[in-house]
Design a protein that fits this description.
mainly alpha, 2 domains, elongated
Length: 124
């Protein structure tokens, strides 16, 4: 499943994509990546942030009227989604050592990234 990104994506969109049937477990693919796809959100945010800064400096809006990042990130929906993502990470971390014991050393890209003693190379 390939989806195209736009600079106006909402914070909730990645969570919606991750819940769709057939999602492969990641939001981007180096094989499908284009420099313009990465540049577009940066250009959008730069223009938005510059406009905001100028509006504050010119007195068109008050600095205290701008919603704070912490207010946005403590919204119930965001906190719930982040908690679910964290629980998923915890579950995967718990399963990884068991998975590693079933694999041959040549099947594993790098066993040394695990926070445990590496039984294949004799190093920790």
């Amino acid at each position: 499943m390939v989806r195209t990104a736009s600079a106006e994506n909402t914070r909730e969109e990645p969570f919606k994509v991750a819940r769709t049937e057939g999602w492969r477990g990641y939001l981007g693919s180096p094989r499908l990546a284009r420099a313009s796809d990465g540049a577009r959100p940066h250009e959008y945010r730069s223009a938005r942030d510059n406009a905001l800064a100028l509006a504050i400096l010119e007195g068109r809006i008050g600095e205290r009227e701008v919603p704070r990042y912490s207010q946005k990130m403590t919204a119930k929906e965001i906190v719930s989604a982040l908690a679910a993502a964290n629980q998923n990470d915890v579950n995967r971390e718990r399963k990884q050592p068991e998975w590693m014991t079933r694999k041959e050393p040549s099947d594993v890209l790098s066993c040394c990234a695990l926070p445990m003693r590496c039984e294949y190379g004799g190093h920790s």
